[in-house]
Design a protein that fits this description.
The structure is a homodimer of 332-residue chains. With 332 residues, chain A is of the alpha/beta class. Chain A has 2 domains: 5-13 and 233-326, D-serine dehydratase-like domain (Lyase, Ornithine Decarboxylase, Chain A, domain 1), CATH 2.40.37; 32-215, TIM Barrel, CATH 3.20.20. In chain A, 27% of the residues lie in helices and 24% in strands. Chain A is built from 9 helices and 16 strands. The radius of gyration of chain A is 21 Å and the shape is globular.
Chain lengths: 332, 332
């Protein structure tokens, strides 16, 4: 007899297997093999990354040194891009020496020096394509590439995340922004060279025709923010919670701020209006009847910082537990 | 030679020892011994709870079964209040059987039944005093107490958290709200009986003259939200981060949504305007000069969900590490 979801300690992070499989195959159909470099920051789970590898993807994107270490540790280190600037590369040296291929984003002389000092052999020049976060100006990319080569590093190409575009609701508007951003990235690429033009995310996975690889992560689990777009991916992850109190006009479930990333606002609850969230409480107004002890599904607004609160992903076939996956890439 | 903060992997949760000591003694001076029931949800750290015990507090408040288990496990189980409704009390039975004293909040026939079924012997009747979250109406408290006694439970008294009052900026307004709330709690207490009237938080620790014990948690580490009030407690906790990119008019540090509770908004950075936060990025406009590789202190807006992201508290004397504390009460 399989463990039932009703037996779990709540709140619990649950992923519906069938929805996950659908998301993996929908993405692989459009972005097969190395045309997708799945971003593991969205799920922080090597068991899930293994499924992405089974779906044909051999290269991965990471956001932290810990993610690189963890992925290399389970044998998924064939081609890891740490798509972020890192000043402390000490631990990356051991990962490289153990045989993993690690490529690091750099956008300044300081991060180039840190990469060289840290024993990383390969870099991408990170270019600001309009997000206004990290990344050099397109016109500076060539000079940085020369500096990286002079420091003994191999420059594989460029990276430029159009994060200001991927969440735009209207598809035509989104496409315009993506194209404008990629024009800037190509300008930088002309000066940098190399075979890699890395960009994109879940919202631009099929719109971005320029990138040689797309760094999508959220597509595999999704959240309510991405669900508002016209994407073929299903919301596969929710927090299973228990109703602990009911009043005349609202109810309270045991899923609060320590189980949910809140930067994109309140989560959704089916057939209910969500009112407030506190450390261990979610207050909502159910449209129907709800009783103390009932289970509710809470759909996070932003999947990445939600997953980072949980130690375990409970993989479900409907109401029964199919697998238990550690969220083993947390921390830094 | 002591480890220096500059050697830490960032982002890292740092607590300044001197500020922590100041907060412990300022609180113990006003609320000595059992007149404070420190809430461990704010720090989730038994090493810090041990210091609260050394400061004279023998009783503790918890928000989750995990917190109760962890506190009992380190010998701090003399009198633990789980100040929340819980439907799944299975693990509380073992904690009680191992000798800890556990009191549970109840606000419905269902949560009373769960307590009795789970082997918990003592309860408080949780009363809604205006927060509108959990808790019964004051007029229903007597009836619930009778039901609890009929189920074989000992009713130690009442609990009513004036959470709608504790964050009010104006002290006089706050006092009025606290008093109104406590009038309701006393009404309930008349019908319930028992020696415990448990209420309060950091914002009302000295204003609440009715509660026999105050459930303050945030006072010990503080955050930018509570720092806006007229409290004698210092901001003792910050996230140490590293600048990874600088541009003409802003800089980016490696402290993002997975290191910060975001429900109360953006964190603060000294001498800077904080602009945006992403998964692993904090974008800010420094008033002075900032270079790649510099350390910055990031002050969280809400301490509880911030601590819950971290495995470790680095306790510091200025720039050197004095102690390393596991955040061992995370999860559920």
């Amino acid at each position: 007899m399989k463990k039932q979801l009703s037996e779990l300690t709540t709140p619990a992070l649950v992923v519906q297997w069938s929805d996950l499989m659908q998301n993996l195959s929908a993405m692989a159909a459009v972005r097969p093999r190395d045309r997708l470099r799945p971003h593991v920051k969205a799920h922080k789970c090597t068991a899930l990354a293994c499924l992405q590898a089974e779906a044909g993807h051999r290269t991965f994107t990471c956001a932290t040194v810990r993610e690189v270490e963890g992925m290399a540790g389970v044998g998924l280190g064939a081609d890891l891009l740490l798509a972020n600037e890192v000043m402390d590369c000490r631990r990356l040296r051991s990962v490289c020496e153990a045989g993993a291929r690690v490529t690091l984003a750099v956008d300044s002389p300081e991060t180039i020096a840190a990469a060289a000092r840290g024993g990383v052999q390969e870099v991408l020049i990170d270019v600001d394509v309009g997000l206004r976060r990290c990344g050099c100006a397109p016109a500076e990319a060539g000079e940085l590439a020369a500096a990286a080569r002079a420091a003994g590093l191999d420059v594989r190409g460029v990276m430029g995340y159009e994060g200001h575009a991927v969440g735009v609701a209207d598809r035509a508007d989104r496409a315009l922004l993506v194209n404008a951003a990629m024009k800037e990235l190509l300008e930088a690429h002309r000066d940098v060279g190399g075979e890699v033009v890395s960009a994109g995310g879940t919202g631009s996975y099929d719109l971005n025709k320029v990138a040689t690889e797309i760094q999508a992560g959220s597509y595999v689990l999704m959240d309510t923010a991405y669900a508002k777009l016209d994407l073929p991916f299903r919301q596969a992850a929710y927090i299973l919670a228990t109703v602990i109190s009911t009043q005349r006009d609202y109810a309270v479930a045991n899923c609060g701020l320590k189980a949910l990333g809140m930067d994109k606002g309140l989560p959704d609850v089916e057939d209910a209006e969500v009112l407030r969230c506190a450390d261990e409480h979610l207050k909502f107004r159910p449209y129907g009847s709800v009783r103390v002890g009932d289970s509710v599904r809470v759909w996070p607004a932003h999947i990445d910082p939600t997953v980072a609160y949980h130690t375990t992903i409970w993989v479900a076939d409907d109401d029964s537990v199919r697998a238990i996956w550690p969220v083993d890439l947390r921390g830094w």
